[in-house]
Amino acid sequence: MSDRFKDHKIDSPRLIAEMLLSHVLGGQRIDLYARVDRIASEDELETLRAFVKRTIQHEPVQYIVGKAWFFGAEFDINASTLVPRTCTETIIEQAVQHCERLGASSSSTGGHSPRIADIGTGSGCIAITLANSLPTCTIVATDISLDALELSQENAALHDVADRITFIHGDGTTPLTPLEPFDVLCSNPPYIPEDEFPALDPNVREWEPHIALSGGKDGLLVVQPLIETAPSCLVAGGVLLVEIATSIKDSVLQLAQSSSSLEDAVILKDQFGDDRFLRKVKT
Question: How, if at all, do strands 275-282 and 234-243 pair?
């Protein structure tokens, strides 16, 4: 499998082969080496062959096995949402740091109970991880896709936080405007500029939902109204955290700096050193 994936220019061929094999045989990847004499049945081999065929067509392995890892936890995943990525974990770190400054540490049982909104929640990985990291917080998670909302609710139930997250169908900040303002507003919105689509990896370009990727001609189709309307949904001192494409960081920063209701705009790097996030505070 590894050799075949390598021939088809599949990234991390050995890792993907291990993921597929452990999914078919059951157990963890370490079991492949702890039980080297395990013989696959004919049914298992048939399933594996089908998975290999899907993989060389660049279908994300996470969609094939129906699982993805984010911030050390496993989430159910399907083609209705983006595949959770490590770079997005910076949003978790920033949101937790801000809430802990408000006195809502993970060990706290009293004090301030921060309100957090996750716009475009997708699989729910951001909202659910924040719920697990900050047991005193209240979270609202929104998405324009009903299929994505259904998946995120299922994940919330799997992680035992369904009673602490309110899921709302809607676009951008619109579902939030009737609600009390939030301490943190975070989002991983569509932000890929139109001219960058041809250069995307095939597993992203051909398989992940276009509605969750495309930021229009300049990448700002969703990001710009989010920046413009966020202040009305934040408390004074509240933080806006938005994932962006490195290529649009200057445009995003200019938009954020032009808002009189937001201050201290800064572009943050992800774990890989790429300019990936806008952080701004409401005055």
Answer: antiparallel
What distance in Å separates the CA atoms of residue 165 and residue 124, rounded to the nearest whole number? 10
**CB-CB contact of 124 with 75 (8 Å):** yes
CATH class, 80-282 region? alpha beta
Tokens of 229: 């309307």
Could you tell me the residue ranges of all domains in the chain?
2-57, 80-282
Give, in degrees to the nearest 5, the angle at Cα 227 between 224 and 228.
85
Q: What pLDDT, on a 0 to 100 scale, did the predictor assign at position 111?
A: 60
Query: Between helices 42-56 and 13-25, what is the axis angle to 10°?
Result: 150
Contact 283, 261 (CB under 8 A): yes
Note the pLDDT tens digit of each residue in 84-113. 999 999 999 999 999 998 874 434 445 678
Q: What is the DSSP letter of 170?
A: -
Q: What token pair was written down for 108?
A: 């706290």
- Per-residue pLDDT at 107: 42
Backbone angles phi and psi of 165, in degrees to 5: -125, 130
Strands, sheet with 165-169, edge to edge from the N-terminal-most edge strand: 165-169, 138-143, 115-119, 182-187, 234-243, 275-282, 262-269
Greatest Cα pair distance, the chain, in angstroms, is 66
User: To 5 degrees, how large is the angle CA 159–CA 164–CA 165?
Assistant: 85
DSSP 192: B
- Residue ranges of the chain whose pLDDT lies below 70: 104-111
Tell me the C-alpha to C-alpha distance, in Å, between residue 55 and each of 16, 41, 158: 9, 21, 27
This model's pTM is above 0.70: yes
Q: Are 91 and 243 in contact (CB under 8 A)?
A: yes
pLDDT at 274: 96
